[in-house]
Model the fold of this input.
Amino acid sequence: MDSKPSSSETAANGTIYVSDAVTTAAKILVVGHFAVGKTTFIGSLSEITPLRTEEKMTQASVHVDDLRGVPDKVTTTVALDFGRLTLTEELVLYLFGTPGQQRFMQLWEDMARGALGALLLVDPARLEETFPVIDLIDEYGLEYAIAVNSFDARFFDETEIREALDLLPDTPVVYCDARDQRSSANALIALVRHLLDRAA
Done:
């Protein structure tokens, strides 16, 4: 009798199954403002081909979406991103990326339901755009960690980030490059450790 492949095995048709050894599944939100790198982050980590709901940006968004700092952006998430990552033999994470624009914020209620926590990506050059997202995280009572997505060589001190975002002392702040798998994994691990600490 054929059996499901383990988390590190792939079926003949390319499908990657969740191992039968997995006993716990956790829903994690990857959140942040418009064009902060959520789709890229999930894409760098997902062990399956990520589900993306990206659409080309059109003239209709010219006066709605602020492209300052991201002039090369040509697509945007209009519903969600979805990926999966087996963290241990027993634990699998389901990653849900939220759209960053205000007009899609009504999706948050459904996406936040059942979420264990949130990884908040921030662009240190556009910190002011993070406040509405923090308000939503607080509204839905989610534990979270901050991942400073550093696409360029500029460095912003952790103390500056904490003060600017008015973070609690125990809120983790990590630095990552959403394009890099190892870097993204370290950010996600920081969130998981924070959630475990809070649950202890």
